[in-house]
Amino acid sequence: MKRPRKWRISGVFRLLLGLINVSRTEALCARPSSRSYNMSRIRSKDTKPEEKVRKYLFAHGFRYRKNVKNLPGSPDVVLPKYKTVIFVQGCFWHMHDCGRFQWPATNQDYWEPKIRRNVERDQLNREQLLALGWKVLTVWECELKKKNIDETMSRILQEIRNE
Fold first, then answer.
1. Residues 62 and 156: beta-carbon distance below 8 Å
2. Please, which residues bridge with residue 79 across strands?
3. Which of 57, 129, 146, 159 has its CB 3.0 to 4.6 Å from that of 134, i.e. a possible disulfide?
4. Burial of 76 (0-12, 13-18, 19+ CB in 10 A)
5. What is the edge-to-edge ordering of all strands in the sheet holding 65-66?
């Protein structure tokens, strides 16, 4: 007697169905033909970590603007009343010194200059904002995981409220 055939759904099909999210690891480890598609699905604004920060701030009575283009670096969250900007940064893209950052094993000639430029641009934007009188806060993706989020967000609230 034959066993019934189990149907496997390919990764691209599951992505289209919305059953999975593309992670950085999946995007980098995929075949070159599908890597381009996966990388195109990584958003630069309105990411999950940004949404977590914005929802927390809104729930605590803060009103903000997002992705203000006339400020250096187009900060993810701008609190004009407190003259504070918040950058929510991914550990991989901005070379955070946590365990989540790891240099890609392939195409290093492309990735190393790209990531180093991101870090240099972050520093330049930070300096420009400080010169304009803004308080600059950075929240890392790894700080928004379940075990850290309450501590991180209470620290952010305290930094916003303290002059």
1. no
2. 84
3. 129
4. buried
5. 65-66, 77-79, 84-89, 135-140
Residue labelled with tokens 């289209």:
16
Q: Which residues contact 77 (CB under 8 A, 6 or more apart)?
A: 50, 53, 54, 57, 64, 65, 66, 85, 86, 88
Q: What does the domain layout of the chain look like in residue ranges?
A: 11-40, 48-161
Q: How many C-beta neighbours within 10 Å does residue 15 have?
A: 18
H helix intervals, the chain = 11-17, 24-29, 32-40, 48-59, 108-131, 149-161
| Amino acid at position 144, single letter | L
DSSP string, 50-84: HHHHHHHHHHTT---EES-TTSTT--SEEEGGGTE
Model confidence, pTM = 0.73
Domain 48-161 grouped into CATH 3.40.960.10: yes
Read off the pLDDT of residues 94-123 as tens digits, 9 standing for 90 and up.
989 888 888 888 888 999 999 999 999 999
Question: pLDDT by residue (tens digit) across 38-77?
Answer: 766 666 677 888 999 999 999 999 999 999 999 999 999 9
